[in-house]
Write a structure and sequence with these properties.
By secondary structure, the chain is an alpha+beta fold. It has four helices and five strands; from the N terminus they run αβββαββαα. The model has no long low-confidence stretch (mean pLDDT 95).
């Protein structure tokens, strides 16, 4: 199983455990609310979650992660989820829920 498939299985498992969430997308799996995406897996198999600036800064410092990129572009507001977090179902669930709360605080599209 390659990285994309492995990460998709983990992502789907956690998203399915949160009744308020629906995983969308076939080639680019994602979650969204109010017209804003708050998580997705890019073509390289990396997972990014959109959270607030303060939370993102703390997350990057704590987990020594890199900026999240998709198709070569830096995805503003997203953090790259490292393997150690992706494998921690409870922490991943908390981050997805935080991302959901964050986009709900934004003006709906």
């Amino acid at each position: 199983m390659d990285k994309w498939q492995k990460n998709l299985v983990q992502y789907d498992e956690v998203v399915a455990s949160i009744p308020a969430f629906e995983r969308k997308g076939k080639t680019v799996p994602y979650t969204s609310a109010n017209g804003h995406m708050f998580s997705f897996i890019n073509k390289d198999g990396d997972l990014g979650i959109r959270i607030g600036k303060e939370s993102a800064a703390s997350f990057v410092a704590k987990y020594q992660t890199q900026p999240f990129k998709s198709h070569g572009a830096l995805m503003k507001g997203y953090v790259l989820i490292p393997d150690q977090v992706l494998e921690n179902t409870s922490l991943l669930k908390d981050l997805l829920e935080e991302g959901h709360r964050y986009v709900l605080s934004l003006k709906p599209k």
